[in-house]
Specification:
Layout lengths: L6 E3 L2 E3 L2 E3 L9 H9 L3 E5 L22 H27 L4 E7 L5 H11 L6 E5 L6 H6 L4 E6 L2 H10 L11 E4 L6 E3 L13 H14 L7 E4 L20 E5 L12 H9 L6 E4 L7 E5 L2 H11 L1 E3 L6 E5 L2 E5 L4 H9 L4 E4 L4 E5 L1 H12 L31 H10 L31 H9 L3
Parallel strand pairs: 3-11, 4-5, 5-6, 6-7, 7-8, 8-10, 10-11
Antiparallel strand pairs: 1-2, 9-13, 12-13, 14-18, 15-16, 17-18
Helix pairs in contact: 1-2, 2-3, 5-6
């Protein structure tokens, strides 16, 4: 049994264990409420969360607007209604115990409006906001107006220093903690900087020590660091607990809670998760956000990675050329044999990329890419795939056929049984579902059973 003392987090004494917020409709009010009811901290996702009709049925997020701006307003209304609905469910399921947090992505479309309106509509339901995927400078200013604590997700001391110096020092009262998310091992979007090598992970201990030194320099000595990314058994982190170099810590579990009875996708995802081996979660830069992200290498991801290999550089003049929308494009002639091979395999349609290349796809893929780009609902502040930008309406770049519609894929991953053709975010320790005896004989625990197990150190 690991000795974990209760900590005051979001102004309540709780187990220093947090549910990691997971994308669209994976972390819900049901899962969040169950974690809180167990005396820990639950987190529901405020990213395109589900809302319900008068009969309790999920309202499909279907877009009717003819323009992107019209669809953007629809998305915002769906998001606000869903966030409020999940917050109220979490409060009801918590039985007044633990704490309820909401996770949002700073670079999701209209984040500041959605966050503000959910907090207005879910008063007294939400105790903390966890926010990453970008530099959320205005996070503290927004949440403090509602007396709600905020928890920025960072992957380095440098990032936190920038946030604190520019913004958080003005609203320290409601800074509840700092989530350190390992940029090489965490699931979902990862905070790798351009100066860091995705193939050379660094020691998390040293990065945590650096983060604590930075926090101490701002007199934040008692503020907890919430360790996220690659956390599975607490016994493997025992040296981090009550360690003066790191200070007070809590632990966030993102991947393990996917397989609990309260999680809506547990049964659909279980066979895939239980089949994973080490290395089956890939760190790539395919996301339309432009960030690195970690996801399970299923059919969808494999196809996107293969698409990256079917690129040819555009040149000024060449004996090798193709036509894209009636425009002649000259290609590097040394790729002639590869182009012929791809075309013979059915990848006959060339599409321009923003990288000054042409990528070859099938006619079916081309139609689907163009359709998805046309139907963009503006789920991100800026999107490589569709070239949407909420500040200007467009990024000014060519839409990127090497990426994909992330909102569409995550919605389908959450609401269908298709785990092969949609994006499945997961941490790099997901292969341990197959190795951990706790999950033997296809056992899916309740959240309480999972937390009891975590408290044993395993």
């Amino acid at each position: 049994m690991i000795k974990l003392d209760l900590q005051r987090i979001s102004n309540a004494l709780v187990l220093p264990l947090l549910e990691g917020g997971k994308g669209i409709s994976i972390s819900t009010g049901e899962t969040c409420g169950a974690w809180a009811a167990a005396g820990a901290i639950g987190t529901f996702s405020g990213v395109n969360a589900d809302s319900y009709d008068e009969n309790g049925n999920i309202i499909p997020q279907i877009y009717h607007g003819k323009t992107r701006q019209e669809r953007r307003r629809e998305l915002i209304e769906y998001a606000v209604a869903g966030g409020i609905a999940q917050a109220k469910i979490a409060r009801e399921r918590s039985n007044g115990k633990g704490r309820i947090h909401m996770n949002v992505l700073w670079e999701m479309g209209a984040c500041e409006e959605i966050l503000t309106r959910i907090l207005e509509g879910a008063k007294d339901c939400i105790h903390g906001i966890v926010c990453g995927a970008g530099m959320p400078y205005n996070l503290g200013e927004i949440t403090s107006k509602f007396g709600v604590y905020y928890y920025p997700i960072v992957s380095s001391a440098r990032a936190f220093s920038a946030l604190f110096r520019r913004s958080y020092k003005k609203v320290q009262e409601f800074l509840g903690g700092v989530v350190y998310e390992d940029p090489w091992l965490a699931g979902g979007h990862n905070g790798l900087s351009n100066a860091e090598d995705p193939n050379m992970p660094q020691n998390p201990y040293l990065r945590l020590v650096e983060l604590r030194k930075t926090m101490n320099s701002f007199n934040l000595c008692t503020l907890p660091i919430i360790i996220a990314g690659s956390v599975w058994w607490l016994s493997e982190w025992e040296d981090y607990i009550n360690n003066p170099e790191i200070g007070p810590v809590a632990f966030q579990f993102g991947t393990r809670p996917i397989l609990t009875q309260e999680t809506p996708v547990a049964k659909a995802w279980q066979p895939k998760l239980m089949s994973l081996k080490r290395g089956d979660v890939k760190l790539t830069r395919l996301s339309p956000t432009g960030f690195y992200s970690s996801a399970i290498n299923n059919k969808m991801l494999s196809n996107l990675l293969a698409r990256q290999e079917r690129q040819v550089d555009i040149v000024e003049d060449s004996s090798l050329s193709v036509y894209v929308f009636g425009r002649k494009i000259c290609l590097d002639a040394t790729a002639k044999d590869s182009v012929e091979k791809w075309c013979q395999a059915g990848f006959t349609v060339p599409m321009l990329t923003p990288n000054n290349t042409v990528v070859f796809v099938t006619p079916e893929e081309s139609r689907q890419i163009l359709s998805d780009q046309k139907n963009c609902c503006c789920c991100l502040s800026a999107c490589r795939f569709s070239s949407w930008c909420q500040r200007k309406g467009t990024t000014g770049n060519i839409p990127d056929p090497l990426s994909f519609c992330i909102q569409k894929s995550l919605q389908r991953a959450a609401h269908t049984n298709d785990v092969e053709n949609n994006l499945l975010f997961a941490g790099h320790m997901a292969y341990r579902f197959a190795e951990d005896p706790f999950y033997a004989n296809n056992f899916i625990p309740t959240t309480q059973q999972l937390i009891d197990r975590i408290m044993t150190g395993c």
